[in-house]
Write a structure and sequence with these properties.
Blueprint: E1 14-20, E2 36-38, E3 46-50, E4 65-66, E5 71-73, E6 81-83, E7 90-91, E8 95-99, H1 104-108, E9 115-120, H2 123-153
Length: about 150
């Protein structure tokens, strides 16, 4: 049985869950206190966000470090960038958060002008969301395989 409810909530105003980033000097909670607008400069590498600029408590230069899709970087202009599927593998901007893996497909559907709202989440809840999504996808895969077997028999 497959739940017919859509996997992604495409209602206006994407709500995504955010884990704290590795950069302790960044204002991790300040990103959740406003709605962000997706910039025209966004692409498959990164979702550039517009809103009230954020400031680092330590604006000094950082060493480049590995990055992953979903990392929220804060460049000097104070407007966050959420790394997406085609993002670089190393970056030097502070990482102020990490989008929950289960929410990345929703972010990938955002278009310029759309709004994005971040909600804090802890590691355990983020893992639970990811596991639930993986289980749903596994059920869909099984249902498709079963239907294909039934079609070949009939």
């Amino acid at each position: 049985w497959i739940d017919p409810k859509p996997d992604l909530d495409l209602a206006p105003g994407a709500r995504v869950h955010l884990l704290p980033g590795r950069d302790a000097t960044a204002p991790a909670e300040s990103i959740t206190h406003q709605a962000w607008r997706v910039s025209e400069a966004s692409n498959r590498q990164g979702l550039r966000l517009q809103g009230e600029a954020l400031a680092l408590s330590d604006p000094g230069e950082r060493l480049s470090a590995p990055t992953v899709p979903g990392a929220v970087q804060l460049p000097p202009d104070g407007h966050p960038i959420v790394l997406l599927a085609d993002a670089q593998t190393i970056g030097g901007y502070p990482c102020i958060g990490q989008v929950c893996l289960a929410d990345l497909p929703r972010l990938a559907q955002c278009r310029p002008g759309d709004s994005v709202h971040f909600q804090p989440i802890d590691r355990a809840a983020a893992l639970a969301r990811h596991r639930a999504r993986q289980q749903r996808l596994a059920r869909i895969e099984l249902a498709i395989a079963q239907r294909e077997r039934n079609t070949r028999r009939g």
